[in-house]
From TrEMBL:
Entry's Gene Ontology cellular component terms: cytosol; protein serine/threonine phosphatase complex
Recorded coiled-coil stretches: none
HEAT repeats, residue ranges: 186-224, 220-254
Record keywords, A-Z: Membrane, Repeat, Signal, Transmembrane, Transmembrane helix
Organism listed in the record: Sphaeramia orbicularis (orbiculate cardinalfish)
Signal peptide interval: 1-16
InterPro entries: ARM-like (IPR011989), ARM-type_fold (IPR016024), HEAT (IPR000357), HEAT_type_2 (IPR021133), PPP4R4 (IPR039918)
Protein origin, superkingdom: Eukaryota
UniProt protein name: Protein phosphatase 4, regulatory subunit 4
GO MF annotation list: protein phosphatase regulator activity
Chain segments annotated as transmembrane: 735-756
Length: 766
């Protein structure tokens, strides 16, 4: 009932409903022909819009029966049907639905009939369809059906719309013919349109000269230079853009004596009045400079870039006038920064490019600063081209990454930066700069502190392991081993740790290649420095000792050299069984070894290196062991990786503050002993934690650190004690487990920090 009411409301009469009714027994082709012949306009539009589907189902019948009907309907049809037909034919051409050229020719005849429609929107739609059809037609058809009418409608007697269409068609068909035909048939027509009385035609034709020039060579350069001096700014811009796009075709002499003077003249003439021209020039500036070499014009071009980077920032008194065009110019300068770094080279970077970069980073407009500080794009461009810049960047990589990644606010920026880091390693790894590769891997070890374990495990650890197993440069291998061990140590998920260890043992210690087994011993040597003795003995020692049975003498020789280090990792009485296994390996080598170098090495080590029972406490090893335990406990207490970073930064600032005050005390002690004694007593009373005190930090840090506030929220009141120091007071019964864990980490990271030690001693939970 509701459907009937809806139809009555829509069409108002039963007669109209009958007119829209179609026999259900008709197939799709017959229904389309019927609706095109007798249907209303809305039905015809629907059929024409569905034409690509009909062509896919039955192309032969569609072009034999439906397309002729569409051609009949288009004669005198309104704009809606015209646009629907143009869109459908364009879809058919772009989707490569047509299988034979006769069907394309059928569409071409339809398009040419309606190309000069009086409605500009409809005419442009048919023009797009024609340009797509040109790519699918043979040369002879284009020459007969398109080129000949093109010569006629390009004359001044035709409308502006027809001449603009001729420019675009001319640029499209230029790529279909060889150089001889282009010079003979198309070049005279292009010259004629470049001299048209309407500046829109000149600008449109100027942008199509790039396609023609790629077929004819640089013969059009004088024409482009002339158009670059046109009275209309749009024509000048079109000429300038075309010249820049053809830079790779222009020889060095023409670049220096034609292109550069042209750029300077355009900059000088446009700098005062037309900011739109400057906006386009600033966007193309990097491409222009990348096509030039030598020092002759470098200074002038870099000076122009400096002017672009401060465009619109000229001040009158304290007022700075900016506009949308000037902001766009400065954004374009940010976009071109990588190209300008390459153009300036490392020798001129600090003096010529860095001031502009610094200015853009401090720009008053947010959009400019965001573009200037886009790390993914800039870093990726740097590492693709300039190894010197990458080398300099490595010196401060840890501080840079910490500043960016510790924010944790922009995931897309972080992802781009991480992708750029991986791309940097791959780029350097494919080059011959192994020292830079070694330096890069050394710096990447800081990622274990800055990135979550999941990202390291998924993206960086596999890449480092590939370097460890495939790279042939020994320093690079050893640095890859150190970085991999660092990632392993700071990974807080036990299952991921286990997976990484299994891969080390299966692919290296038990690998088929003796080269990989040697690499495992290198990893063991590094692991003794990074891991605690307990962790090393549990995971590395036994696989290393099993290599005593290795069939390759070089592997056994390497193991003999490593034995003193393996022995030093054992402590009695807890490691008595491991010591027995190690001694058994030594005795086996002494009894069964046949290689003279291995025998000489094991005899020398057995005589010179005597094992000493170490029962004394190794403070450094204890610190490592506590850190490894705390890293796993952080998972249980749900302390995030970012919070861990903030904890480290917080305690670091606290430690520096305390050190600064102690140094000040020592300086004052030299001037007055008595005054120093009083201050020492005062400071001792000030910093000695009472039974209710809990935590101490910088006031500035307290105001800035949201994480710290979240940790100690509800614990107590902040009491100001010194201009730079504050502490919290509360009964310890309300201290949360995460805060206790934070204090534990403070003690491990800074064992000499008496304040944290005191807090732990007072806390009853310890």
């Amino acid at each position: 009932m509701s459907i009937a009411v809806l139809f009555v409301c829509l069409f108002q009469s039963a007669e109209e409903i009958d007119q829209l009714t179609v026999d259900e027994d008709l197939n799709d082709i017959e229904r389309a022909v019927y609706l095109l012949s007798f249907g209303q306009e809305v039905q015809r539009v629907s059929v024409i819009s569905n034409l690509p589907s009909l062509v896919r189902q039955n192309p032969a019948e569609t072009f034999r029966r439906v397309v002729p009907k569409v051609r009949e309907v288009l004669n005198g049809a309104g704009a809606e049907i015209q646009l629907a037909a143009a869109a459908s034919f364009l879809t058919i051409l772009q989707d490569d639905i047509i299988l034979i050229h006769t069907h394309t020719y059928s569409i071409l005849k339809t398009v040419l009939l309606h190309l000069n429609h009086r409605d500009t929107v409809v005419s442009n739609a048919w023009l797009e369809t024609l340009l797509s059809a040109i790519g699918a037609l043979p040369k002879e058809t284009i020459k007969q059906e398109v080129l000949n009418p093109l010569l006629y409608q390009s004359q001044l007697s035709h409308s502006l719309q027809a001449r603009l269409a001729s420019c675009r068609i001319l640029g499209k068909i230029a790529s279909k013919f060889d150089s001889h035909i282009v010079k003979k048939e198309l070049l005279p027509l292009a010259h004629s349109l470049c001299q048209d009385v309407e500046f829109e035609v000149r600008a449109s034709m100027c942008r199509q000269l790039e396609n023609i020039a790629r077929a004819t060579g640089t013969e059009l350069l004088p024409e482009l230079v002339e158009l670059a001096g046109d009275e209309e700014s749009s024509v000048r811009l079109a000429a300038f853009d075309t010249i820049i796009n053809l830079m790779e075709m222009i020889d060095s002499d023409d670049r220096l004596h034609v292109v550069v003077p042209l750029v300077m003249s355009v900059c000088d003439s446009s700098s005062q009045a037309d900011e739109a021209v400057m906006a386009s020039l600033s966007f193309q500036f990097g491409k222009l400079c990348s096509g030039l070499a030598g020092d002759q014009h470098r200074t002038r071009l870099l000076q122009k870039f400096k002017l672009f980077s401060v465009s619109g920032l000229q001040t009158e008194g304290n007022h700075t006038e900016t506009s949308s065009e000037s902001t766009l110019i400065r954004c374009n300068c940010c976009y071109n920064l990588p190209a300008m770094v390459v153009f300036a080279d490392s020798a001129h970077f600090l003096s010529e490019v860095y001031p502009s970069f610094a200015s853009l980073c401090c720009d008053p407009e947010v959009s400019v600063r965001r573009t200037a500080c886009s790390p993914g794009n800039t870093l990726r461009c740097f590492v693709d081209v300039v190894f010197e810049v990458l080398d300099a960047l490595m010196n401060h990589l840890e501080e840079t990454l910490e500043a960016v990644l510790s924010r944790g606010e922009n995931t897309s920026v972080d992802n781009k930066l991480l992708s750029a880091l991986l791309l940097a390693e791959q780029t350097v790894g494919c080059s011959l700069r192994w020292r830079l590769h070694e330096k890069l891997l050394q710096r990447y070890s800081c990622l274990a502190r800055l990135l979550p374990g999941d990202i390291l495990h998924q993206s960086f650890s596999p890449r480092i392991f590939i370097i460890l197993t495939t790279n042939k440069v020994l320093p690079v291998q050893k640095e890859a081993a150190r970085t991999f061990c660092t990632f392993l140590r700071y990974n807080r998920k036990q299952e991921q740790r286990q997976e990484m260890m299994e891969r080390l043992i299966q692919d290296l210690a038990q690998g088929r290649s003796y080269w990989n087994r040697l690499r495992f011993l290198d990893v063991c040597e590094t692991a003794t420095e990074i891991f605690s003795r307990k962790y090393f003995n549990k995971h590395f020692l036994i696989p290393a000792l099993e290599l005593v049975h290795d069939p390759v003498a070089n592997v056994r020789y390497k193991l003999c050299q490593l034995l003193p280090r393996l022995r030093s990792s054992l402590r009695l009485p807890s490691d008595k069984q491991l010591l027995q296994q190690l001694d058994f390996c030594v005795q086996k080598l002494l009894c069964r070894e046949k290689d003279k170098d291995v025998v000489a090495t094991i005899l020398f080590l057995n005589e010179c290196v005597q094992f000493q029972k170490r029962q004394e406490k190794d403070l450094l090893d204890q610190k490592k062991e506590k850190e490894e335990t705390l890293l796993l406990e952080m998972v249980r207490f749900s302390i995030t990786h970012y919070c861990y970073i903030q904890i480290v930064q917080t305690v670091s600032l606290m430690f520096l503050c305390r050190q600064e005050q102690l140094e000040r005390q020592q300086t004052e002690a030299k001037t007055n002993d008595k005054l120093n004694e009083r201050k020492r007593e005062s400071e001792q009373n000030l910093y000695l934690l009472s039974e209710n005190s809990c935590f101490i930090c910088s006031c500035d840090l307290w105001e800035q650190s949201r994480v710290l506030k979240r940790f100690v929220e509800g614990l107590g009141t902040v009491i100001l004690v010194r201009p730079r120091v504050c502490y919290l007071t509360k009964n310890y019964t309300n201290i949360s487990a995460p805060l206790i864990m934070m204090l534990k980490i403070c003690m491990v990271l800074f064992p000499m920090f008496a304040l944290v030690k005191s807090a732990l001693k007072v806390c009853s939970y310890m």
